[in-house]
Amino acid sequence: MTPALVDVRGLVKHFPGERRLLGLGPPRAVVRAVDDVSFAIAPGQTLGLVGESGCGKSTVGRAILRLIEPDAGRVTIDGQDVVTLGARALRALRRRMQIVFQDPYGSLNPRMTVHQMLAEPLAIHRIASGADAERRIAALLEEVGLDPSFAQSYPHELSGGQRQRVGIARALSVEPNFLVLDEPVSALDVSVQAQVLNLLADLQQRRRLTYLFIAHDLAVVKHIADQVAVMYLGKIVERAPAPTLYGGPRHPYTTSLLSAVPVPDPKAQRQRIVLAGEVPSPAHPPPGCPFHPRCPHPKKDARCRTEPPALREVAPGQLAACHFAEEPL
Amino acid sequence: MTEPLLRVRDLKTYFVTEQGSGTARAVDGVSFEVQPGETLGIVGESGCGKTVTSLSILRLIPEPPGHIRPGSFIEFEGRNLLTLEPRDLRAIRGNQIAMIFQEPMTSLNPVFTVGDQIAEAAIVHQRLSRRAARTRAIEMLRLVGIPDPEERVDHYPHQMSGGMRQRVMIAMALVCHPKLLIADEPTTALDVTIQAQILELLDRLQAELGMAVMLITHDLGVVAGSADRVVVMYAGQVVEQAPTAALFARPLHPYTEGLLASVPRLDAPPAREHGRLHGIPGQVPAATAWPEGCRFHPRCPYAWDRCRAEAPPLLDAGGGAEPGTHTVRCWLLTDPRRRTPHS
User: Fold this and answer.
1) B129: exposed, middle or buried (Cβ count in 10 Å: 0-12, 13-18, 19+)
2) Which sign, positive or negative, has the C-alpha torsion A48, A51, A54, A55?
3) Could you read off the pLDDT of B8-18 as tens digits, one per residue?
4) Model confidence over B25-63: pLDDT tens digits?
């Protein structure tokens, strides 16, 4: 097997609770946003990281790039340890790893033209200047499906889909080999979402890019990912190759999540598992298995309330954190 | 056939734009009906006019810059809402027709308890006493599945999660037992497990209360699961309308077809075997400059000369469908052999 390009081991990020009452009250509980997350991504592959709001998936993406500092764990990209790197070396490594954000409205500077946004990283990383930079910017725009005349536009003159293409071009400008895509199509209309997903697939093939694709939409992830990891309350609860996970989920949370997705086919006779209650606060996760208060598994017992299940291999290549993973719903 | 509950005919809602770049014809000749007790899905992407349509029904369009053009007609139980006196309109709005919005965060008033906000409509429309209205608010909270309603009734919106707030919005809308509920993207801001809860709640309440629902959404999956009939909108017009089963089995407008092909599906084989999504090229034109002829022709894989020159009317789908039940705004229906895409 080829060595992983991205290797994440035991990643932890806790946010300290803020003090109430002008800092005089008792401190609030620590929010365990990311709690012992591990995965690896092989070169040229896509790992889909899915979960609902607040599960910690975006924090994972940012901690890997050290846009926020992880509290513990090891992250290596192409064999290089990201967590212990000094500021200078980190900046150099940033050429290899980039991020595309969800909100194409908030992630572009409204006072810069597309040209300025694409020229800036080229200058910072001393990649190109002058005529060479011009040529690269035109080529980048073309590569993401925008006419080079867009270079002189400001973000407000662009549609959501066009802005997201600019965000992708900006990430690609420094020629990275690893991209964190944080909900890159969630803000787009479906017809535009399809265009951007196709673009991401083409770019991955052409440039042999490795993706961490963070999303809440399980159908989108199924379409694009090779491997899938499902997060709940800061932990990965299931991880498997996409066909395995979608074909036979072993964690009751994955099963429920999949059953809740509306399918555009009125004839589809599906059993929808409607989970009771809501996701508990990551500041006060339940003891034992974090999913036990909402778990629909008929076998769940006292052990689920006291003993946190380990993420273990339950089938070849398939990991799940459930005491009853061998007895699916 | 029974009298429709709501009949919208040739609705035109235009907006005068600030920069003088012309008039935005946001809704441009929309007609449809809602039968008592049914769920009508209205589907389309941003800017197709689906939200403006629903706001027009409740006459919530800010004037200026907006105005509903003369000749438009919105009839609810035989009365034209567009010519009603404000007083008579108020007796219908929030009482017989209620609406829930996409953003449960911004549609609730942060300085009143949820109980006060639910009770308000009952006090105004049904002349309940404060005490009776409070009891009704607690009943409503229980009906929409909020635990400990006696305690929750005194909570403020910020003390609740997004899913809870959407339940409160539904409780507010249903407190007067409306005959028609307009739900504008009611689950778009919610996580998928919470979305499933809310959709199931709406289904259950509709069956219990016997109301009609206009479900406005961009999500074809939500429509497939909940609607009896579907209206597809594009560029301010209805481009296709049909019973849900017929629409998904035989989408006839190229836009509907493209929309269905754009959606990644859980019930499809995974990407590596499946390849690319067949999206729709280009983007929605601006409402100030809809294309001549068929408004979809610049993005349509089948378009020919006639589509560029002549705007198609809604045509009957034929193929065994009862006349008027499945209609499509596309010239292909007059010339089905052209249904082979250009490269």
Assistant:
1) exposed
2) negative
3) 999 999 998 87
4) 999 999 999 999 999 999 998 889 999 999 999 999 998
> How many C-beta atoms lie closer than 10 Å to residue B59's C-beta?
16
Mean pLDDT computed over A69-76: 94
> Mind telling me how many Å the CA of A264 is from chain B's nearest CA?
4
Tell me if ipTM is over 0.85.
no
Q: Which residues of B touch A161 (CB under 8 A)?
A: 283
Distance from CA of B155 to the nearest CA of A (A): 18
Closest to B52 (Cα-Cα) out of B11, B19, B18: B11
Q: Give A44→chain B minimum CA distance, Å.
A: 13
The band of B272, judged by pLDDT with boundaries at 50, 70 and 90, is: very low
Task: Give whole-number Cα distances, A131 to A125, A128, A137, A143, in Å.
Answer: 16, 8, 10, 18
For B77-211, list the strands marked E by DSSP: 79-80, 97-100, 180-184
Whether residue A279 lies within 8 A of chain B, CB to CB, comes out as: yes
Question: Does B283 contact A218 at a Cβ distance shorter than 8 Å?
Answer: no
Closest among B99, B231, B111 to B176, alpha carbons compared: B99
Q: What is the pLDDT of residue A25?
A: 66
Cβ–Cβ of B225/A198 closer than 8 Å? no
What is the per-residue pLDDT across A237-275, written as a single tens digit (0 to 9) for each? Answer: 999 999 999 999 999 999 999 998 888 888 876 678 888
Q: Is the pLDDT of residue B146 over 80?
A: yes
The contacts of residue B164 (CB under 8 Å, 6+ apart) are: A278, B146
Rounded to whole angstroms, how far apart are CA atoms A53 and B189?
10
Contact B45 A278 (CB under 8 A): no
Q: How confident is the model at residue A329 (pLDDT cuts 50, 70, 90)?
A: confident
Q: Which one-letter amino acid corresponds to residue A81?
A: D
Please name the residue of chain A whose CA is at the shortest distance from the CA of residue B189: A53
